[in-house]
Automatic annotation (TrEMBL), chains A, B:
PANTHER family found in the cross-reference section: 2-METHOXY-6-POLYPRENYL-1,4-BENZOQUINOL METHYLASE, MITOCHONDRIAL (PTHR43591:SF24), METHYLTRANSFERASE (PTHR43591)
Domain Methyltransferase: 50-176
CDD domains for this protein: AdoMet_MTases
Keyword field: Methyltransferase, Transferase
Matches recorded under InterPro entries: Methyltranfer_dom, SAM-dependent_MTases_sf
One example of a Gene Ontology biological process annotation: methylation
Species of origin: Canariomyces notabilis
Annotated SUPFAM superfamilies: S-adenosyl-L-methionine-dependent methyltransferases (SSF53335)
Protein name: S-adenosyl-L-methionine-dependent methyltransferase
């Protein structure tokens, strides 16, 4: 499992790869990726300014760092990931924002290194679609949540990914990510979004403890599209090129993907979307 | 074209089919189907209480009637559909709400029977996915819009439809609606959502005149699910049964679809979703 994670994009050290890759890995913030949770955080903070928030599978840590800003200096965030190599990057990002109320720790969501009832908020983003047993993971996240606290998760339903216009390089990229050996190596499911509510119920939670909402990601906004396109191109052209060749893409495929992704982002009529499901579970 | 429309569900006279079917055809309101447009309407109404709104392809007219409530008694709504048979139902629905600032007219979106610059707001919901030339339709809608007015449209991307859990009858329903002869007879496209912005640009509008947003439909809310399930079952079991048999479903298929749709709605973990794109175009 740890090996799989090492193979993933999260293992890329974005700090060495310049501004485009840095932006790609850190453009996710609590504001664009966990907006559904912010009103709840604000409410909980009113009642208790010393909130403890655990972010699981946090990758580059940009969502965690913005959570730390939102819950304020009296609150505390623990940012975790299975891959130790990614945590120094998360730490550097938090430092770049001047965020101090945060710590970093290697952790497996199936066996979290924390006592029962340790956190007010336990959060993950795009995690359950990549692991083997989301129900066990949810149970473990609930275990370390204080009574009265919440577990929050947002999962894309990757089968609903839409790319318009369907330029040939983008179709290749979609097939590479979703239909090739890469998806098999990484495990998980492409339909996490639609199953999220069912998983929470299976983890033993009652329906009236769960708040469900739905959203989309990305948008057709020019700035977001360019961050995405430049990031993919730089990573695929650079550190991930060797992997991509091993997983069945040719040199020409990679060039076409990079070229079409940038051309796509530059068009006024282009869109890249995916359905997202969000749950907030009260313990 | 008019013939196709006559074959569609809109031609069902829901007034004869009881409460379940009535609710199915009228559960769409401006609040749940055009929420993206309401702030714009409120703002325009502040400036001009005598707004004129055209609703195109309005079917059972429940969205039109709630628009009439929102723009208020000094405003006026013209509710149109290609199928003359549906308009008495729309009229009856508006009457049931006590809405008086509304009129009803047969109209083809490709050739609207109105002068240039006649309306402040021209709206349609789930129309472009069912017609042959959405760009021409958009041009025609823009023609009858006053300078300074808006054209608003919301289109589902039907290829992203998600049904969970995937009960066998629901899979059959999905295939019947999307992959069978029905879809071919009705024409149109399953990917309207992702193309909506591109169509607007093709109709000659500049990118900075267009506000784009994205949403989902339906939800996992119990009440909505039941309205949907009871409506489908009653219609498919009743007036549309003959059509369904002609289009390749068997008696057993229909029974299974009705049974599984109701079972699906009754489950706590069930979800039915589709990506939606919304645009507001300023003329």
């Amino acid at each position: 499992m740890a090996e799989d994670k090492e193979k993933s994009a999260a293992a890329v050290d974005y700090r060495k790869l310049g501004k485009d890759v840095f932006e790609f890995f850190t453009h996710r913030t609590a504001y664009n990726s966990a907006a559904y949770l912010i009103p709840t955080l604000e409410r909980m903070k009113q009642e208790n300014p010393r909130l403890r928030l655990l972010d699981v599978g946090a990758g580059a840590g940009s969502v965690s760092a913005t959570f730390a800003q939102i819950i304020g200096p009296e609150g505390h965030v623990v940012c975790t990931d299975l891959a130790p190599s990614v945590l120094p990057q998360a730490e550097a990002f938090a430092e770049s924002l001047g965020v101090k109320n945060i710590e970093f720790k290697t952790a497996d969501v199936h066996q979290l290194p924390f006592e029962n009832d340790s956190f007010d908020v336990v959060h993950c983003h795009q995690l359950f679609g990549h692991i083997k047993d989301p129900v066990a993971a949810l149970r473990e996240m609930l275990r370390v949540t204080k009574p009265g606290g919440v577990v929050a998760a947002r999962e894309g339903d990757r089968e609903t990914e839409i790319i318009w216009p369907p330029l040939p390089g983008l179709k290749k990229w979609h097939e590479y990510v979703f239909d090739s050996k890469v998806a098999q190596v990484h495990g998980g499911t492409l339909t996490a979004g639609r199953q999220l509510l069912a998983w929470a119920l299976e983890a033993g939670v009652k329906r009236n403890q769960i708040e469900v909402s739905y959203g989309t990601w990305l948008t057709s906004e020019e700035a977001t599209k360019m961050v995405y396109a430049r990031g993919i191109s730089k990573v695929l052209n650079g550190p991930s090129r060797k992997n991509a060749l091993q997983f069945g893409l040719t040199e020409e495929d990679i060039d076409e993907i990079c070229r079409d992704t940038l051309a796509w982002a530059d068009r006024e009529d282009s869109t890249w979307l995916m359905l997202q499901t969000e749950i907030i579970v009260r313990k």
